[in-house]
Amino acid sequence: METLLHLWPPVRLTLELATIGTLTLLVLATPLAWWLARSKRGWKEVIATIVSLPLVLPPTVLGFYVLIALGPDGPGGTIASLWGARTLAFTFQGLVIGCIVSALPVVVQPIRNAFAAIGDRPLEAAATLRASPWTAFWKVALPLASPGFLSGAVLGFSNIVGNFGVVLMIGGNIPGRTRVMSTAIFDYVETMQWREANILAGGMVVFAFVVILSMILIQKRYAMAGA
Amino acid sequence: MRLRSIAAAFGLLWLGFVGSAEAAKTHVAVAANFTEPAREIAARFREKTGHEAVLIFGASGAFFTQITHDAPFEVFLSADEERPRLAVEKGFAVPESRFTYAIGKLVLWSRVLDVTDGKATLSAGKFSKLAIANPNSAPYGAAAIETMKALGVFDALQRKLVRGSSISQAFQFVDTRNAELGFVALAQLHGVTAGTRWLVPEDLHSPIRQDAVLLKRGANDEASKAFLAFLKEPEVRTIIESFGYSIE
Q1: How far is it, in rounded angstroms, from Cα B119 to Cα B199?
Q2: How confident is the model over B120-133, as pLDDT tens digits?
Q3: In this predicted complex, what is the ipTM?
């Protein structure tokens, strides 16, 4: 019981981080994915590539750049100075930013694919029925792309839960503020508290299993519904 | 036919790589704070003895876990005395081989504030973030906590602490100026001129003894035993001191 009380704060913080991060990601990724799917500009793939970079870059590289960007020399320091702080590193907001950067590609990709799969037809049909582009987007495109949003949300959420490198680099491991599950596990292993490490790590394995299984089931269901 | 000869060529190449990796060498797990001196020592070791010391750098805590799971290391240069002692106790290391190869020195370092009078800076507390290494796993972090307690400023500063997973990360936080100041190892400031520093008086914390130990895997290995003996040579002790450690 004592142990569980000890383990709960990083779990709660991780869930908060992943929830807020995923919601923010959906808001950011939707217009971006829409533009990437619909735009005819040739250089949009350059933007798509930049968005996808975190998939390939080692988390340490990403974490190091985010650490600099959040600090006094970067844009993060400028934002932090609005409320008199020097840096966004070591804050919950900083973690959200770092996690969003690394999870953006896994959220944008499925949503972009879903938008692209709709094609021009349904939107043209909506236009002939005198729906404004805005209405067409809300009433036609969004519902048709909902499997993509679901995939994006699940992948984004689990990416944030599993984030280790970036969180370690910018968090400062402050209990209750920046000490999340992945860094807590690292800590427990480092300090030879293997029982605690085992409980959290086991929880992560179960979580990952549930996520992947539900993804497969979602895809199967939509595939059948579409057929 | 051609495919088969290509496959054979790859096979030979692969065997070549694997074979070369098995040549007589000693694998040394080195605590991150000892990176620079270890490189220099390994180079001298090769000149003097012809043996090669393959250095693996990392956090002592992670090394200990790996050693208890049969990691391929023959020598362990820890950042503390606790883990080599435990390695002996749990039967992963040769008991009589353990000795203190270096004693670490703690420094308060800043690239933002003037910390030449560290005690005054800490008491004034006019900063928002103070970086330390994780006190639970890194001895430099524990020494930093002891220092703050000895100065009577710990309670006031507790909320301003940010913990790096290792002393390297504490250094990084200060170096990128995300934290205004931090406790780092003097060895890390070797060759660094930026910022101001305050060498923490050694009576403010218990000595940061860094112990070396011969692991069971290297118990009968000439190169590994030679490397540990080499660490005690006067020439090597001079190198260690030049990087900002003391020697007993």
Answers
A1: 10
A2: 999 999 999 999 99
A3: 0.72
Q: Do A189 and B62 touch (CB under 8 A)?
A: yes
Sheet holding B52-58, edge to edge: B52-58, B25-31, B75-77, B208-214, B99-104
Contacts of A172 in chain B (CB under 8 A): 129, 131, 162-164, 173, 179
**Structural domains of chain A in order of their starting residue, each with its CATH number:** 2-226 (1.10.3720.10)
Q: Distance, in angstroms, between A83 CA and closest chain B CA?
A: 13
pLDDT for A160: 95
Q: What was the pLDDT predicted at B22? A: 46
The pTM assigned to this predicted structure is 0.78
Say whether pLDDT at A99 is over 50.
yes
- Domains of chain B (ranges; CATH) run 2-103+208-242 (3.40.190.10), 106-199 (3.40.190.10)
Rg of chain B over all Cα atoms, to the nearest angstrom: 21
Residue found by looking up tokens 């809300």 in the block:
A138
Radius of gyration of chain A (CA): 20
Is B176 in contact with A73 (Cβ distance < 8 A)?
yes
Whether the pLDDT of residue B199 is over 80: the answer is yes
Q: What count of CB pairs under 8 Å joins A to B?
A: 71
**How far is A159 from A156, CA to CA, in rounded Å?**
5
| pLDDT for A22 | 96
What pLDDT score was predicted for residue A21? 96
Flag if A190 and B176 touch (Cβ within 8 Å). no
Q: Which residue has the higher pLDDT, B47 or A215?
A: B47
Residues of B near A (Cβ–Cβ under 8 Å) read 59, 61-62, 64-65, 86, 112, 128-129, 131, 134, 136-137, 161-165, 169, 172-173, 176-180
